[in-house]
Amino acid sequence: MPLELFLNATSPYARIVRVCALEKGLEDRLILNWVDPWADDAELIEVNPNAKVPALCCEDRTSITETLPILYYLDSLTERPTLLPRESLASVLHGVGLGMGLVDASFQTVIARKYTGAADADRSHLGKRRLAAIERILSRLEADTVPRHMYTDDAQLTLDDIVIGVALDYLRFRMPEIEWPLRFPALAAWEDTRLSRRSFHDTRFTG
């Protein structure tokens, strides 16, 4: 049986998984099951009682939930290309941590604004911490991670490229008011090389 991925069109976590699957050449083995995780979809809950996307049903119907375990599993399915090269594993995981931190802070900000209102969400103690974290991570990426990863367009991506790339595009999509490309030009130039790849273009956010 094929792999079945539960996802929606606006989740940065699900998009990270889709980009990785495309970069690994696994698209022909993947069935996309589009669901609304906020509607307590029964089929999704059967696979993931936490009612979150992404969730992956493996070929033996074992379910894997949460983004990073799914990515680890997908990377194990083929030896090449690898998303986690041993020779630069620490550096790659450093970038993955920054990228996932940016995704988490951005996504939680968007959800808080949706359910409590933007003004109240951003004024709260947690809201201020999230916004400060976004700024710190952007600054760190501009100064630290990105200069080490200025690959050409046709280079093999590693997991940090994908996670950071999706995180930045999610900010463009959901929080355009922070105008990060104007304030972090090296980061914006780096991001443009990622968005031009088919794996990013074919999975772009909608909705």
From TrEMBL:
Molecular function via GO: transferase activity
Taxonomy, superkingdom: Bacteria
Keyword tags: Transferase
Residue ranges constituting the GST N-terminal domain according to the UniProt record: 1-82
Pfam families, per database record: GST_C_2 (PF13410), GST_N_2 (PF13409)
InterPro entries in the record: Glutathione-S-Trfase_C_sf (IPR036282), Glutathione_S-Trfase_N (IPR004045), Thioredoxin-like_sf (IPR036249)
PROSITE patterns according to UniProt: GST_NTER
Full protein name: Glutathione S-transferase
Organism: Modicisalibacter xianhensis
